[in-house]
Amino acid sequence: MIREHTCITVACDVCQYKFDEDEYTAHFADLNEARKALTGTGWTITADRKVFCASGDTEHQAALDALMPPEPVMQTPGQLSIDTDQS
């Protein structure tokens, strides 16, 4: 009997490494099941469904840093801005 099954697999958006269990690609019934399986493994799933493996190299860190909002610019009231062009 041949049956068609739809499933979800997870791969890192940076290096394309596939999330595996005992050297076999893990297959999940739905996104919620995939999220639960990745919990506590060091993998990151963002709100827009980007996935990053637990590798800590500079390429992966740069991808995570790119998702962060810019740091706020702090300026005390009455303080001159150091970013102004004084020419």
From TrEMBL:
<protein>
    <recommendedName>
        <fullName>Ferredoxin</fullName>
    </recommendedName>
</protein>
